[in-house]
Amino acid sequence: MKKLISALLCAALLVPLSGHALAAEETSNAEIAAAWVQEQGIYCGDSSGDLMLDKSLNRAELAVLLTRLKGVKTEDLLQNANHYSLYCGFTDVPEWARPYVGWCVQHDLLSGYDKFHYGAADPVTPAAACTVMLRVRDIADGGGSVWNYGTAVSYAASLGWIDRPADDAAAITRGEMAVLIYRAMTGSRPVDPQSVGTGDGYLTNGEPITEENVLELLHEIEIDWPHGTVWGTSKTPGTRKNEVPSRAARWVMNLYRVNGYYACGGYAAMVSSLIFGDNFNPARQVEDLSQIRPGDIIILIRNDTGKIWHVSIALESPNEMHAFHYTDGNHGGIVSWPDAQSPYSRENLDCYGEGKTYRVEAWTRYPENVPYTGQSMNAWGIPAPNR
Questions:
Q1: Is the dihedral of CA 288, 294, 297, 299 positive or negative?
Q2: For the chain (length 387 residues), average pLDDT per consecutive 10?
Q3: At a CB cut-off of 8 Å and minimum separation 6, what does 217 contact?
Q4: Residue 206 lies in a domain
Q5: How far, in Å, CA of 166 to CA of 176, rounded?
Q6: In a domain, 251, yes or no
Q7: Domain presence at residue 194
Q8: Which among 248, 317, 330 is positioned nearest to 288, based on CA atoms?
Q9: What is the domain count for the chain?
Q10: How confident is the model at residue 196, as a pLDDT?
């Protein structure tokens, strides 16, 4: 009986709703993400393996996906179906879906339109999809939060989880949902291992690690996290924090006992992870500071106390004057990007070192087989393609 119910659930998640075809350029990413989601047991294919990525999900089906995302076994949930159904007081939820919706309501992942209406048959909107994924990742909404239902899509987009065109869609497709899940759970974009690389030696967009490719990603991050974005400590009203999986970057922060979520350390960890990924491309210390490169983590330390003063991300290599542009968070409580054309607002290595108030230590996530070229000196003043 349990096997039959599971089979029916897989079939239910493939019912074609009023979906729309994925754009050609999105199809491969959706297929790659869906393959990962299917491997995790979150999606089921039909007898021919078709995941119907261009079709929509309804809100009842979304509840099933969420229980799987949270690692709930179908057998365990159905054994306690009566208990979880008690949390589903909605009158428009079919009997088969009541324990799934109830479990999600109990765990604050889903809510209805009102006390009696959930909208089980309604398609999942981008706002609803982003809302539940932010909750899955424990980025809580509510009083004092950095997001709410009305801003869930834009906030998820700022984290790189969803693309802006989805904002205006009436429903999110199964393919788009797979991409959203993949990005939110892995901290990277789906890339085809047959055409571009993944893992060590590659960036989050699947491109090889080069100074030019890192610069391109930094320009994209500047658009998503523009100058003036509120960024501070956990006590700063309306602040943002690092929500990106950042194991490799936080390893560096932990060495210096710097917060990898808030303030300058959290911002630097986020930017580093958006470029080099969560756990790939481990960090190593830069021995020759003249060979700092775009994307490197820059740490300023007081010589007298050994305490950390500030953490930032280099945007270019030090030039002939030993100066380079950088970006940081929490300088004045905001995200800061320099005026690319200004000779000022640069760090200068001559201001630091032995006999100075502060010294510089730098960490890079460029693999050792990617040599320093010096080609990114003064590079932040060069407009990025299509910028």
A1: positive
A2: 43 38 52 87 76 88 94 92 94 96 95 95 94 88 74 82 67 91 79 61 88 95 93 90 90 94 96 91 95 98 94 96 94 87 74 92 94 93 49
A3: 203, 204, 205, 274, 275, 295
A4: no
A5: 9
A6: yes
A7: no
A8: 317
A9: 2
A10: 53
pLDDT of residue 343: 58
The residue whose two tokens read 């869930």 is: 152
CA distance 291 to 288: 6
pLDDT at residue 381 in the model? 72
Q: What does the pLDDT read at residue 295?
A: 98
Claim to verify: residue 182 and residue 215 sit in the same structural domain: no
Instruction: Kindly list the distances between the CA atom of residue 199 and the CA atoms of 70, 272, 273, 277, 367, in Å, as whole numbers in the listed order.
Output: 25, 15, 12, 8, 11
Q: Please tell me the distance from the alpha carbon of residue 176 to that of residue 252, in angstroms, as a whole number.
A: 33
Distance CA 227, CA 240 (A): 13
- The whole-model pTM stands at 0.57
Same domain, 140 and 222: no
Query: Which residues fall within 8 angstroms of residue 314, CB to CB, at 6 or more apart?
Result: 292, 293, 294, 295, 296, 297, 298, 324, 325, 326, 347, 362
